[in-house]
Amino acid sequence: MSKTFDKFTGVIFLLISILFIFESLKISGSAYGSAVGPKTFPLILGVVLGLLSLRLLYETFKLKSEKEEKETFNYKRFGIIFVSAVAYVFLLEIIGYVLSTFIFLVIAFQVMEKGKLLYTLIIAAFFTFGVYAMYVQVLGGSLPRFSLF
């Protein structure tokens, strides 16, 4: 991407992470005396987003000013991922987290880089089940289940 776009994106995501952290601190703690409560996962995500934003800003300012090439945006790829993200949101409650996330990731990975379908399926499955296991089993949260039956 362009240097200006990276700076703008880094600042925007840093502001979003700060907002995310402050809002997650407003969530009440665990009622059972556990160290892991409902605010733990959003707080961790906010901190990670903030650190990644700072890294992006650091790398953007660290790079020497190079002649920027005019980049063209691929609207077809953006459109496909945008439509699949909207469909993901609507299908999340209907077909559940695991299936909808897996399908969304497969579509997104294939749009970004066609081919290597086996690797796409493996990575999507590991990510989907990994997040599910971490959130449901470790943190004790709940995610939408398959509700057609």
UniProtKB/TrEMBL annotation:
Keywords associated with the record: Membrane, Transmembrane, Transmembrane helix
A Pfam family of this chain: TctB
Keyword Mitochondrion assigned: no
Residue stretches making up the DUF1468 domain: 9-144
Coiled coil: none
Bilayer-spanning residue ranges: 12-35, 41-58, 78-111, 117-136
Protein name per Swiss-Prot or TrEMBL: Putative tricarboxylic transport membrane protein
Organism expressing this protein natively: Ureibacillus acetophenoni
